[in-house]
Specification:
By secondary structure, this protein is mainly beta. It is 9% helix and 21% strand. The longest helix is centred in the last third of the chain and has 5 residues.
Length: 56
C-alpha cells in the first residue's frame, strides 16, 4: 500500500530527497507521492516534521 501525503504537509521538502524511488515531487500546494513509484518503505514518514506522509 503506497503512502500519500495528507493536508498536514507544510511543503518543507524534507521527504523528497530521502525517497529511494524518487516518488515524491512538489505539487501545486504541497508535496505529492506517485503511487506507481512508491514502494511503501516509510522513509518519508520518518523524516517529516509534521507526519504528513501516511499509508493510503
Amino acid at each position: 500500500m503506497p503512502h500519500i501525503i495528507h493536508d498536514e504537509c507544510i511543503s518543507c521538502g524534507a521527504c523528497a530527497p530521502e525517497c529511494p524511488t524518487e516518488a515524491i515531487s512538489e505539487g501545486s500546494s504541497q508535496y505529492v507521492i506517485d503511487p506507481d513509484k512508491c514502494i511503501d518503505c516509510g522513509v518519508c514518514a520518518g523524516v517529516c516534521p509534521v507526519e504528513a506522509p501516511k499509508p493510503e
